[in-house]
TrEMBL record:
<dbReference type="GO" id="GO:0051287">
    <property type="term" value="F:NAD binding"/>
</dbReference>
<dbReference type="InterPro" id="IPR029753">
    <property type="entry name" value="D-isomer_DH_CS"/>
</dbReference>
<feature type="domain" description="D-isomer specific 2-hydroxyacid dehydrogenase catalytic">
    <location>
        <begin position="3"/>
        <end position="328"/>
    </location>
</feature>
<dbReference type="InterPro" id="IPR058205">
    <property type="entry name" value="D-LDH-like"/>
</dbReference>
<dbReference type="InterPro" id="IPR029752">
    <property type="entry name" value="D-isomer_DH_CS1"/>
</dbReference>
<dbReference type="InterPro" id="IPR006140">
    <property type="entry name" value="D-isomer_DH_NAD-bd"/>
</dbReference>
<comment type="similarity">
    <text>Belongs to the D-isomer specific 2-hydroxyacid dehydrogenase family.</text>
</comment>
<feature type="domain" description="D-isomer specific 2-hydroxyacid dehydrogenase NAD-binding">
    <location>
        <begin position="109"/>
        <end position="297"/>
    </location>
</feature>
<protein>
    <submittedName>
        <fullName>2-hydroxyacid dehydrogenase</fullName>
    </submittedName>
</protein>
<dbReference type="InterPro" id="IPR006139">
    <property type="entry name" value="D-isomer_2_OHA_DH_cat_dom"/>
</dbReference>
<dbReference type="GO" id="GO:0008720">
    <property type="term" value="F:D-lactate dehydrogenase (NAD+) activity"/>
</dbReference>
<dbReference type="InterPro" id="IPR036291">
    <property type="entry name" value="NAD(P)-bd_dom_sf"/>
</dbReference>
<dbReference type="Pfam" id="PF00389">
    <property type="entry name" value="2-Hacid_dh"/>
</dbReference>
<keyword id="KW-0560">Oxidoreductase</keyword>
<dbReference type="Pfam" id="PF02826">
    <property type="entry name" value="2-Hacid_dh_C"/>
</dbReference>
<keyword id="KW-0520">NAD</keyword>
């Protein structure tokens, strides 16, 4: 079976090729999947995509016309896929529901530690032989209240790590996780997360209900000086409202690995051009208490190995006629 692998980087080629078995023919394409590039899938039976690829109704219609019957995501999230359209066209969608919750959870903790102890500023100072401590004051994590929004696999691992620091961990989820409760995590309403937490970390999917979950109203209900961390999906934050809260000092620290308009920025080297055609992103980078990473939370060898294995398993299952191992319910 021939598979067009869009948005492929050298690491995608390495880990997918290592996991490949059977008669799968992987055609690695550097192009992102868009309506303009969908024609590159012609002659293939399936496409393999990532979070920055566009799998809209227009793209799916073009893929279906070219005989594509399977879209395999190299990610857990599928908010970039028009699932209703896929269902109507008879296109099966599959994903990698769990690759390494530790990778993303640990990255969230890394953002917290780096922000709290001003690691980036300290690193730059020492390289200039400036050993002054002014401006580097942090706080003990021990005893602080950490609010976790979303306690799936990643949120639960994050909660476990933060309890290890001696934090009081509270959480909000539409479906409380018994594993979190066994850790001593208390489930509370979202309003209490906002009101009580010194640190808030977002680990929920992007859905119509969670889009701009953190807006001006939510920010106004948080503790002044709160640390806000988002390693889930950029659309959970209203960026304009976050910038306003940073300017007013309502947010004390912001750590994000995702951005709501990241498709135009992330996963490419834009060092020569910069990001100044995105005024909101450029403004975020001006704040000394903001730390942005480029959607690298998932990026560990362990996670990429698992992504490769599950992606290949999904493709082989479809090729055999059994269906992919991890289909996405297109009725969602």
């Amino acid at each position: 079976m021939r598979v067009a692998v869009f948005s492929s980087k050298d690491y995608d080629r390495r880990f997918l090729s290592s996991a490949r078995t059977g008669d799968l023919e992987l055609n690695f394409l550097e192009h992102r999947l868009t309506e303009q590039t969908a024609g590159l899938a012609q002659g293939h039976a399936a496409v393999c995509v990532f979070v920055e690829d566009e799998v809209s109704a227009g793209v799916l219609t073009r893929l279906a016309a070219d005989g594509i019957r399977l879209v395999v995501l190299r990610s857990a999230g599928h908010d970039n896929v028009d699932l209703a359209c896929a269902r109507s066209l008879g296109i099966v969608v599959a994903h990698v529901p769990a690759y390494s919750p530790y990778a993303v959870a640990e990255h969230a903790v890394a953002l917290i530690l780096a922000l709290n102890r001003h690691v980036c500023r300290a690193y730059n100072r020492v390289r200039e032989y400036n050993f002054a401590l002014t401006g580097l004051l942090g706080f003990d994590l021990h005893g602080r209240t950490v609010g976790v929004v979303g306690t799936g696999a990643i949120g639960t691992v994050f909660a476990r790590i933060m309890t290890g620091f001696g934090c009081r961990v509270i959480a909000h989820d539409v479906r409380p996780n018994p594993e979190c409760e066994r850790l001593g995590v208390s489930y509370v309403k979202l309003d209490q997360i906002f009101a009580d937490s010194d640190i808030i970390s977002l680990h929920c999917p992007l859905t119509p209900a969670t889009h701009h979950l953190v807006d001006a109203d939510a920010l106004a209900r948080m503790k002044r000086g709160v640390m806000l961390v988002n390693t889930s999906r950029g659309g959970l934050l209203n960026t304009a409202a976050v910038i306003s809260a940073l300017k007013k000092g309502l947010i004390g620290y912001l750590g994000i690995d995702v951005y709501e308009e990241e498709n135009a920025l992330f996963f490419e080297d834009r060092s020569e051009r910069g990001a100044f055609d995105d005024d909101l992103f450029a403004r975020l980078l001006t704040f000394p208490n903001v730390l942005v990473t480029g959607h690298q939370g998932f990026f560990t060898a362990d996670a990429l190995t698992r992504i490769g294995e599950v992606t290949i398993a999904n493709l082989l299952g479809f090729e055999r006629g059994d269906g992919p191992q991890f289909p996405v319910a297109t009725s969602d």
